[in-house]
Amino acid sequence: MKLKIAIIGTRGIPNRYGGFEQLTEYLSVGLMKNGHNVTVYNSHKHPFCEKKWNGVTIKRCFDPEYKIGTAGQFIYDLNCVRNARKQTFDVMLFLGYSSSSIWGPFYPKKPVIISNMDGLEWKRLKYSKPVRWFLKHAESFAVKYSDYFVADSPAIQSYLKEKYFIDSQYISYGAKIFTETNEKILQQFNLKFQEYFMLMSRMEPENNIEMILDGFHQSNSDKKFLVVGDVNNRFGKYIFKKFANDKRIHFAGSVYNNELTHTLKALAVLYFHGHSVGGTAQSLILVTSEQALCSFLRSSETCIPAYQPSSFNLNRSRSAAASTWSCARIVPFFIR
Fold first, then answer.
1. Which domains can be identified in the chain, with CATH numbers?
2. Which of 218-227, 256-265, 323-332 shows the lowest per-residue confidence on average (mean pLDDT)?
3. What pTM, to 2 d.p., does this model score?
4. Which contacts of 317-325 are long-range, i.e. CB under 8 A and separated by 24 or more positions?
5. pLDDT-derived band at 321, boundaries 50, 70, 90
6. How far apart are CA 156 and CA 281, in angstroms?
7. How far apart are CA 24 and CA 304, in angstroms?
């Protein structure tokens, strides 16, 4: 049966932002190859301006986030919903609920509504207390206005069952297996094989970037630390300024080339993944496929990968996983 499917809730494809956008890339093309008609909603600010991407229909909607901040996400999602009401979709998949579920009363009546419930968004420290209060209610709106639910970790699945008495389908993320590295890439960043540490993340407080870099800053390591991620938001600017005088720390900005980021992670002496909320981060799953030694923060929401290549060894002399992190506990990672 051929279905008309819409995917809403991302900044758009091709991926220029994060995990849901990466998921959308793979999912939309996969559904299209299985005979379905797939539409992905993109922000009008997304640099890709064509009407088709790898066979997937792209709908661009006005997104004022760049002008008015977070409030613009709500207007963008409303614009996507308004456009969807004019279409004849059979299924609408919402990735996340933070700024879309409030528009539940306006969802089209015909399509089956599926919500990927993401993580516990109301725990994110980047939000003020009033916003976190709202997000708790937005979560309940998503439950009210959706027909089916997807959880990206068993912890989120259990939470939804206990909190709302609803059944959800646990669907784990996959990852492309990388086996080749190109050591010449390191020259672009003035790095050498296993002579640097690395993290790649959005600049948000709950990703524990400050704690990780504090630990490195307090160490006497002679290695470098590569930070990949856009530092143009408020927290990013704060982090950049705080560590600007540590010449060992290099802020590379955003990097969207998969071959490049794979090589950088695989050839680092240790990769740090500090996400503490938001469900299972796809970047953590990807690291396991890249055979990079990784120190990750184990939280109640994180689904630890089911498979672990030999080089992703939690039993090395330095524990690669920590149930709790503190600056004092991180410093020893940089002592060799």
1. 4-170 (3.40.50.2000), 183-334 (3.40.50.2000)
2. 323-332
3. 0.73
4. 318/270, 320/270, 320/293, 320/294, 320/295, 320/296, 321/295, 321/296, 322/295, 322/296, 322/297, 322/298, 323/298, 325/208, 325/211, 325/274, 325/297
5. very low
6. 13
7. 22
